[in-house]
Amino acid sequence: MITSLSIKNYALIEKLSIDFSKGFSTITGETGAGKSIILGAIGLVLGKRADLTSLKNKEEKCIIEAHFDIVKYNLESFFESNDLDYENDTIIRREILPSGKSRAFINDSPVNLQELQELSLFLIDIHSQQQTQELSDENVQFKIIDAVANNKETISDYQLILKSFKADKTKLNTLKKRQADSQKEQDYNTFLLDELVAAQLKAGDQEILESEFEKLNNVEIIKESIDKALAVANEEQIGVSNNLKEIKVALQKIATFSSDYSSLLERITSLTIEFDDISQEMSRCSEKLVNDPEQLDLISQKLQVIFTLQKKHQVATVEGLIEIQTNLENSVLELGNIEEEILKLTTTIEKQGSKLDKLADTIHKNRFRFIPVLSEKLISILATLGMPNVRFQIDITQSESYYSNGKDVLQFLFSANKGTDFGILKKVASGGEMSRIMLAVKAILAKYSKLPTLIFDEIDTGVSGEIAIRMGEIMKEMSKEMQIFAITHLPQIAAKGDAHFKVSKSTIGDDTQSELKLLNDNDRIVEIAQMLSGTVVSDSALNHAKALLN
Predict the structure, then answer these.
(1) From edge to edge, which strands make up the β-sheet containing 483-487?
(2) With contact defined as beta carbons under 8 Å apart, do 7 and 44 qualify?
(3) How far apart are CA 2 and CA 66, in angstroms?
(4) Which parts of the sequence belong to the RecF/RecN/SMC N-terminal domain (predicted)?
(5) CA torsion sign, 166 to 168 to 173 to 174?
């Protein structure tokens, strides 16, 4: 529960500090006195966004600080998960600087607005008139039913699986699109791949084949040239080989006379050995040379295949063709992988669907079981609020679609009087009836909610007299379960509070200020009397005020 609130330099408030107690507190004041400013300040503490218009003095910072007693609400895990110091008396502070920047602190540790908003969900619910209109929204109606049916954990589990289910469905659709796009190219890619595989390409093949082609295509010229070279080398009388041997013999005779001659002998000996080896190699080459037209034609065909593939794929080497072949193989393989992935993902989605169906069925059964309980409680409370003939027709049916909170479709219909047909709330319920229905809903939820504090902002719109008294009694009863604030214009409700605060506005010179004050017993009598009769307080108004308070 909120135990204190201090405000400095915010809107019409220069400085304010007020303590709150548990139970039921009422807040009254003239229209425009600043009740919305108090709510705005609390909203900032709860993580709403701020701007420079919030500052009363644009040259000073605005500070709003609220203390919360959270000892009973098991929030230690939140503080631990957000790396914050836990304190039973937790302090939340917002600062708005003249530069427009905003800072937030929980127990003096800086936090971002998201963390502040997450914590606020466990602290305060501010019920505005807009929320009363939201009662006609199907999601809000489901939340009411699910709170009574205790569906929170089941829906949480359902939503966790639903998130994965939707993500996997999106991924599956993407894969199927890729598969369809790939399938269009698959036949052509397979044809190209088959061509390359049939060519049996290897790195360096082109150079070897081109060399072999040149040999076979010029075999006669090559043989003639080698044979002529062999004849020159080995002719018995004047051949190079014979002449080299004669030179070697001549040098052997003088080699011992000088190192120069010895060196010449070594060199001619080496040259003779090398020349003999060349002659033998030429002989072997000559023996290997065969005129083979068939082999020449085979090599020519293979080279033509390579040239054709290079032109088709716009590359200049066999290595480039091999790279394209590898890419095509990967493309074909990828399509196979996509099919396998689609199969796996489809199986996963089917399993997730089964889990979702099971959880949705549990949610549906819980709702179905507790709808009569909710309807009965609403009818009972509304009967005390002057709606004795009210009826609700709440039907849920399961669909094939997965919604954020299950598979149910809800029809929440209402009839206020005997003999009238059921209709949609916002179409058939008046403003006063909507206010009473919302109060009945909040009264029921108070028993199921662990929320410490609930603030009603003029939930009494459209009611008066005896109904207002009963609304006040219901809020008083709710305050046994949680801390309740009611901002009201009705004296009947104001009189039911355990504590009564008044918001007032005053003008001092050129400055206008709002303040919030806790009323004592005498001030409270006067305030309620003024609410009954206006600024001129009559004795009957005072007596009526005392009667309401008693």
Answers:
(1) 124-127, 453-457, 483-487, 24-28, 499-508, 511-518
(2) no
(3) 7
(4) 2-505
(5) positive
CA atoms lying within 13 Å on the CB side of residue 149: 23
Cβ atoms 75, 86 nearer than 8 A: yes
What DSSP string describes 181-206? HHHHHHHHHHHHHHHHHHTT--TTHH
Determine what percent of the chain is predicted with pLDDT higher than 90. Answer: 36
CA 313 from chain center: how many Å? 44
Question: What do you get for the CA distance between the two ends of the chain, in Å?
Answer: 27
Range of weakest confidence among 186-190, 269-273, 286-290: 186-190
Name, of 31-45, 147-161, 220-234, the range with top average pLDDT.
Answer: 147-161
* Residue 217: per-residue pLDDT: 67
Length of the chain equals 550
Interatomic CA distance for residues 442 and 456, integer angstroms? 10
Domains of the chain: 1-123+451-519 (3.40.50.300), 178-337 (no CATH)
Is pTM beyond 0.85? Reply is no
- With CA atoms as reference, report the closest residue to 17 among 3, 2, 4, 6: 6
Task: Render pLDDT for 278-334 as a digit per residue (tens, 0 to 9).
Answer: 888 888 877 777 666 676 677 677 777 777 777 777 877 778 777 877 776 676 656
Distance CA 152, CA 445 (A): 13
Q: Up-side HSE of residue 189: CA atoms within 13 Å toward CB?
A: 18
Q: What's 468-490 look like in SS3?
A: HHHHHHHHHHHCCCCEEEEECCC
- Distance (Å, rounded) from C-alpha 351 to C-alpha 357? 10
Strand partners, 62: 96
Sequence-distant (≥ 6) Cβ neighbours of residue 177 within 8 angstroms: none
User: Who contacts 72 (Cβ-Cβ below 8 Å, separation ≥6)?
Assistant: 452
Q: What angle do CA 367, 368, 373 make, to 5 degrees?
A: 80
